[in-house]
Structures are given as C-alpha cells and as structure tokens.
C-alpha cells in the first residue's frame, strides 16, 4: 500500500492525515489537535502537513481563535487522492482477508481493537 501511496505523491501517514481531515469535514482541527487525535507528535505532524501542503493536498489557514495556531484544510485534490487511496486500501484489505470467513474477520478485528488504541479509527481497515 505504501508503494501505491508513494506513486500518488504521498505516504500511508499522509493518507491517514487526509482521511482524518476528510472525516472531520466542516469542523476545524488545529494542527495540535489533529496530531493528538492521530497519536503523532507536533514535529512529525508539521513535517507531514508541510509535505501535503507542498503537494497541493492541504492548505493551512490561520485559526481565528488563536493567531499562533494553524488549521489544516484538505483541498479538492486532497479529497480526490484520499478517496482513490481509500479505495485501493479497501481492495488490499479485501485481498488480505479473503482467506478468512466473516466470523474470523470479525474475531481478528475484535482482537486488534483490544491491543491497539483506536478511539479515532472508523470505516474500512477496522
């Protein structure tokens, strides 16, 4: 999957950031809040957003409540790429889980939820 993301000018982590921004549509996330929600430190989040911004996938706007803070907003190009990568990720997930029965898939998901903190994960891939 990382090769697919890389072929489209981003990374798995970049896709995760885009997905969080798309799923949070309409509600602004400060860079700090976004990093906290994804379990990413401030320095790493800044580097990820820098790359996404250079690629035209995200823009950062001033926070009207805190002039020191910036609010990342996904662009139309970012939305399109996120949707494309999401579809690719679902296809990879289906291929990997194909040997398992529906009950086995649910057992796997249940076990993963127990060992991985995922309070902000939604949709496919869990």
UniProtKB/TrEMBL annotation:
<protein>
    <submittedName>
        <fullName>MarR family transcriptional regulator</fullName>
    </submittedName>
</protein>
<dbReference type="Pfam" id="PF01047">
    <property type="entry name" value="MarR"/>
</dbReference>
<dbReference type="GO" id="GO:0006950">
    <property type="term" value="P:response to stress"/>
</dbReference>
<dbReference type="InterPro" id="IPR000835">
    <property type="entry name" value="HTH_MarR-typ"/>
</dbReference>
<dbReference type="InterPro" id="IPR036388">
    <property type="entry name" value="WH-like_DNA-bd_sf"/>
</dbReference>
<dbReference type="GO" id="GO:0003700">
    <property type="term" value="F:DNA-binding transcription factor activity"/>
</dbReference>
<dbReference type="InterPro" id="IPR039422">
    <property type="entry name" value="MarR/SlyA-like"/>
</dbReference>
<dbReference type="InterPro" id="IPR036390">
    <property type="entry name" value="WH_DNA-bd_sf"/>
</dbReference>
<feature type="domain" description="HTH marR-type">
    <location>
        <begin position="1"/>
        <end position="117"/>
    </location>
</feature>
């Amino acid at each position: 999957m990382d090769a697919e993301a890389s072929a489209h000018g981003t990374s798995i982590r970049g896709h995760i950031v885009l997905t969080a921004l798309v799923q949070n549509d309409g509600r602004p996330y400060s860079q700090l809040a976004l990093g906290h929600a994804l379990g990413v430190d401030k320095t790493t989040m800044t580097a990820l957003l820098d790359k996404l911004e250079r690629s035209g996938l995200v823009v950062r706007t001033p926070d009207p409540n805190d002039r020191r803070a910036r609010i990342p907003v996904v662009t139309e190009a970012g939305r399109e790429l996120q949707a494309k990568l999401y579809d690719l990720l679902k296809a990879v997930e289906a291929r990997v889980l194909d040997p398992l029965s529906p009950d086995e898939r649910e057992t796997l998901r249940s076990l993963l939820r127990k060992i991985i903190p995922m309070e902000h994960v939604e949709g496919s891939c869990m």
